[in-house]
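User: I'm putting together a small comparison set for a docking exercise, and I want a reference complex before I start. The sequence is below, and the ligand is nicotinamide-adenine-dinucleotide. Could you produce the 3D structure with the ligand included, as structure tokens?
Assistant: Of course. I'll restate your input first, then give the structure tokens for the complex.
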Amino acid sequence: MMGVLDGVLMELQDCALPLLKDVTTTDKEEIAFKDLDVAILVGSMPRRDGMERKDLLKANVKIFKCQGAALDKYTKKSVKVIVVGNPTNTNCLTASKMAPSIPKKNFSCLTRLDHNRAKAQIALKLGVTSDDVKNVIIWGNHSSTQYPDVNHAKVKLQGKEVGVYEALKDDSWLKGEFITTVQQRGAAVIKARKLSSAMSATKAICDHVRDIWFGTPEGEFVSTGIISDGNSYGIPDDLLYSFPVTIKDKTWKVVDGLPINDFSSEKMDLTAKELAEEKETALEFLASA
Ligand SMILES: NC(=O)c1ccc[n+]([C@@H]2O[C@H](COP(=O)([O-])OP(=O)(O)OC[C@H]3O[C@@H](n4cnc5c(N)ncnc54)[C@H](O)[C@@H]3O)[C@@H](O)[C@H]2O)c1
């Protein structure tokens, strides 16, 4: 792949980016992972035709086992690790398990793309821009069991903030088509483009890293996959689960105490169950790999 990397290098140079000082291309872990402030892990094994979910997990446990160990060995302990490669939640958990010297709270996985998709669907429906929509939540796994929740989301209409349910007055769409559209958006993009999301994923990574660095605006939260470590929602500890978080001083905090109705609770548990199963499989592979 070093030849391909040369092409990536040329494109980066050709962007003439004002803040880009230097690029190193390498296939050596000791160079790639040395003293990082941020590690964005995008390399993973994609699902191929006829591949079982377990086979995919196994292949990726192998990759993220190495990357976690390399982070542990070569990187700054303050590094912020953002896992993008799928299955992103469990890959992130695997990497964290392999890097015990780096705090668990430094690991996150990307559910910001799902978050942005949810914002965009609401904005499209209401004829506003995505910027007018805030506090949507993606709960759980970056998979089709994720739960996009707008019970606490607000939209700005004629200068006033209104709850999304109140603004839309279309509960059946919000509890049905809206949820499935966001859950299956990745597959819909692949079907149309014959390639997975690229531009929107890149934008989501930028949003995610920017918020880690500069914090979330007052009164706003965003969705991020993090290792659960005590929360008011009954999500078991030590799952890599997407929660609403606020970020300050490069540290996130789960937004606890939001009221959860039965409809939401069932969906949050379902995606937690899938993550618990993925975790169990990954840990089995990790022990034997
Ligand atoms: N979390 C999200 O929201 C989100 C969004 C978009 C894409 N993704 C995922 O991000 C990943 C990258 O997407 P893409 O479209 O660039 O996919 P891609 O298949 O084009 O790129 C994956 C890359 O990983 C590399 N790779 C394979 N094995 C590796 C290893 N052992 N070590 C390092 N690199 C390895 C491959 O060579 C390839 O270049 C995929 O897993 C995709 O599903 C996640």
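The radius of gyration is 19 Å. The mean pLDDT is 96.
User: Thanks, that's exactly what I needed.
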